[in-house]
Amino acid sequence: MHFAYAPRKTSNPPPYAARSPKSQYLRRSRLQLLGLVAAAALFSIWLLSTLFRSSGAHKVPAGTPPVVLVTTIDRRASPASVANILDNRKDYASRHGYATFVANTSDYDLGVPPAPDSWSKVPAMRHAMTLYPHSTFFFYLSQNALIMNPSLSLERHVLGPARLESLMIVDKPVVPPDSVIKTFSHLKGDRIDLIITQDGEGLSQESFILRRGDWAKYFLDGWFDPLYRSYNFQKAEGHALEHLVQWHGTVLAKLALIPQRTINSYSRDASNNKDGTYHEGDFVANFHGCDRDGNRNCEKEMAPLTTRWREIRDSGTGRV
User: Fold this and answer.
1) Which position among 161, 162, 225, 298 has the lowest Cβ density within 10 Å, counted as fewest Cβ atoms?
2) What is the 3-state secondary structure (H, E, C) of 164-221?
3) Average pLDDT, the chain
4) Are 68 and 137 in contact (CB under 8 A)?
5) Cα separation of 110 and 119, whole Å?
6) Do 206 and 264 form a contact (C-beta atoms < 8 A)?
7) pLDDT digits 0-9 by tens, 236-266
């Protein structure tokens, strides 16, 4: 019986078959998917480390002032009035290790045609944050206001989270008396970035505190939007601020409304809210509107309390 031999292998084998386009596409897709997963994992690690790193990881240079006082000065104010305001701010800052930043209302481009000078407070706050990039809080105070109780530090008087929570006015119409938009009732003191007061007509932008950070930059840039400056609001930046707070939840979610007399008591000539009138011992006396009413004179109105402030200052303790 004979068996057929298996055919001998040729010394010239056929070339390997080329890969199909489908297999190449699948291999390339798997590599792209793996790359995306790796990139997402690295981004997640970076994001978590950024969000949850301890506050101690941010190194603040020695000597950095925790608070910067910001005031804008009308170029038409008398030299004596300006000197009084500067003395008031510098005295308070020196007592608590704070810094001061004073700018002229004419220092900033307010658009064409120019918006009212009162808008200058917004870029002035941004300017101060640039000059003091490591300071935590920026306290804007109108040139028509005096710090009358210099013994009070802002940390103890307002900024401590527990203290701030005890002051916060919740579930209150943002614009009195009946705005449908109300302050939130669930916010925590350590999550607040904007501290402000309210008088009998609305939010007061003549005395407010802002925490440095990306949110603060977003807030100031939004407030200073050219559209708002050109809209010709009746109360200029005041009405723009109320619009921003009422219709942008990202702003309202960072805002704490506190009692007016905490940082913004009005003089008797200015008060349109009986609960906001200045009393001896209050932190600030604000002569609200004295520069817009032709029947009033800021320098004359401020003179008695300027004298009283000097008495408090010269007493040595700064206590009322």
Assistant:
1) 162
2) HHHHCCCCCECCCCCCCCECCCCCCHHHCCEEEEECCCCEEEEEEEEECCHHHHHHHH
3) 88
4) yes
5) 7
6) yes
7) 999 999 999 999 999 999 999 999 999 999 9
DSSP lists the bridge partners of residue 242 as: none
Tokens of 207: 């005395």
More confident residue, 59 or 168: 168
pLDDT tens, position by position, 29-60: 777 777 777 777 777 666 555 544 433 346 88
* Whether 220 contacts 228, CB under 8 Å: no
Side-chain half-sphere of 54: how many Cα atoms within 13 Å? 2
**HEC string of the chain?**
CCCCCCCCCCCCCCCCCCCCHHHHHHHHHHHHHHHHHHHHHHHHHHHHHHHHCCHHHCCCCCCCCCEEEEEEECCCCCHHHHHHHHHHHHHHHHHHCCEEEEEEHHHCCCCCCCCCHHHHHHHHHHHHHHHCCCCCEEEEECCCEEECCCCCCHHHHHHCHHHHHHHCCCCCECCCCCCCCECCCCCCHHHCCEEEEECCCCEEEEEEEEECCHHHHHHHHHHCCHHHHHCCCCCCHHHHHHHHHHHCHHHHCCEEECCHHHHCEECCCCCCCHHHECCCCCCEEECCCCCCCCCCCHHHHHHHHHHHHHHHHHCCCCCC
Measured between its terminal Cα atoms, the distance across the chain in Å is 128
**Rounded CA separation 203/257 (Å):** 9
The answer to whether residues 155 and 220 touch, using CB atoms and an 8 Å cutoff, is no
pLDDT number for residue 47: 59
